[in-house]
Amino acid sequence: MSAVVDLLLQAASGATVQLPPELARRLLACSTDAAVGACLGLSLPQRIRVRNSALMQAAQELATDGATTWQTAQRLARAVRRFELALLPALQAGHALSLTPHESALWRAYQVSGTRPLRSPRKLYSLLLLY
Does the CA dihedral 33-86-12-61 come out positive or negative? Predict the structure, then answer.
């Protein structure tokens, strides 16, 4: 992952970062998610990999008791539903919330633009089998 993406992920997690002035100007000029992705040089497959990596981190946080892959997928699906209903609206509104490690990983997954969130246990199970 590039240094620019690392900076943006740090900023998205609430850390104070200083963007290079040229990058800041280019990002401010973007009007769509696709334009932001193009500005950062991220292709759709790269954005999907970033999302999947964040989902895998959330799954690892939820499967600390030796759960099977299917059980982990079900737990992750429930965590995604809870996150979407309880935390996502507040985070998108700019509220600073104290997040657990798996919620932080889900927030990173939802910050990736241009990718659809995975919600169903079946799709999450398929993702877990790939990694």
Answer: negative
Q: What is the mean pLDDT of the chain?
A: 87
Token pair 């169903």 in the structure block, residue:
120
Which H or E run includes 88? helix 88-92
User: Distance (Å, rounded) from C-alpha 17 to C-alpha 20?
Assistant: 10
The pLDDT tens digits of the residues spanning 15-28 come to: 788 888 887 788 77
98 Cβ contact list (under 8 Å, min separation 6):
none
Integer Cα distance of 20 and 96 in angstroms: 25
Are the C-beta atoms of residues 72 and 128 closer than 8 Å to each other?
yes
The number of CA neighbours under 13 Å toward the Cβ of 5 is 17
* Coil/strand/helix, residue 112: coil
